[in-house]
Amino acid sequence: MPKVNLYATFRDLTGQSQVRVEGKTVGEVLEALVRAYPTLKEELFEGEELAERVSVFLEGRDVRYLEGLATPLTEEATLDLFPPVAGGGRVERFGALPSWLLERYLLEWGGKKLEEGVYALRGATVRFREEAPLRVGSLSISQLQVEVEGEEAEAWFQRIQLAAARGGG
């Protein structure tokens, strides 16, 4: 039976951090989840489609880039469901912090890579992307936009700021 990891407000709505749900596709598993926890319906779906604001990952890959709700699942599959975050988030631009260094920090801190530029940490999700470099005369400084959201967003953001100040930014 596929396993579903629930994050942030989805944990609050279900009272669970992880559930096992019957289903042979992502859509079937999400429908079974809604039957068990009806309050999730308006959070997960817009009509019959997966809500844009919700992130669903199968083994670290966004299902939107697979077969969407029709993505087949094995009995051992793991889905990660991330709700939208209305608060508890922060975005900042870091100069001279290369993406490879931030990735190294996130992995050292126990982060799980969900897709390129997206990591799950305990209580937070970190998204980052390279920005256009800052140019001052002939000097060019790389920039990285970092967004941290979730229940523990502020604590993780402070940790990133400290690491950037020490090692990269």
From TrEMBL:
UniProt-listed PANTHER family: SULFUR CARRIER PROTEIN CYSO (PTHR38031:SF1), SULFUR CARRIER PROTEIN SLR0821-RELATED (PTHR38031)
Coiled coil: none
InterPro entries linked to this entry: Beta-grasp_dom_sf, MoaD_arc-typ, MoadD_C, Mopterin_CF_MoaD-rel_C_sf, Mopterin_synth/thiamin_S_b, SAMP1_3, Sulfur_Carrier/Prot_Modifier, ThiS/MoaD-like
Domain of life assignment: Bacteria
Protein name: Molybdopterin converting factor
Native source species: Thermus scotoductus
A Pfam family annotated for this UniProt entry: MoaD_arch
Domain Molybdopterin cofactor biosynthesis MoaD-related C-terminal: from-to ranges: 93-169
